[in-house]
User: Which sequence fits this backbone?
């Protein structure tokens, strides 16, 4: 696992990378001072052939799906915080899910 951090006045992010057969792949963990709503984007939902969403009591929305070309995405959001990855294959999604679920939202 490798990380890369970035921030500015209203944004803090860490990108987490793992080595896969197709090269480095990862997800981002973001915290923003401006409003970042919990729902996934409409385009992610509409382009998915399979979609799942769970809302937890703490307000976190865990949404995931995949497109017809086999590209997976996942977004775990709570107001102002987000963990997400996009455009990865099934094997990489499974690996990223293991790391993503183990860590708290930033």
Assistant:
């Amino acid at each position: 696992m490798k990380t890369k951090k970035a921030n500015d006045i209203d944004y803090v992010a860490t990108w987490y990378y793992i080595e896969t057969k197709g090269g480095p792949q990862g997800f981002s963990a973001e915290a923003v001072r401006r409003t970042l709503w919990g729902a996934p984007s409409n385009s992610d939902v509409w382009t998915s052939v399979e979609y799942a969403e769970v809302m937890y009591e703490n307000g976190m929305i865990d949404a995931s799906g995949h497109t017809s070309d086999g590209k997976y995405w996942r977004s775990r959001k709570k107001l102002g915080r987000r963990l997400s990855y996009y455009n990865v294959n099934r094997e990489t999604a499974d690996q990223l899910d293991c790391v993503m679920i183990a860590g708290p939202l930033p």
Q: What stands out?
A: The beta strands are 2-8, 11-20, 23-32, 50-55, 61-66, 72-78, 81-88. The chain has a mean pLDDT of 82. DSSP finds two helices and seven strands in the chain.
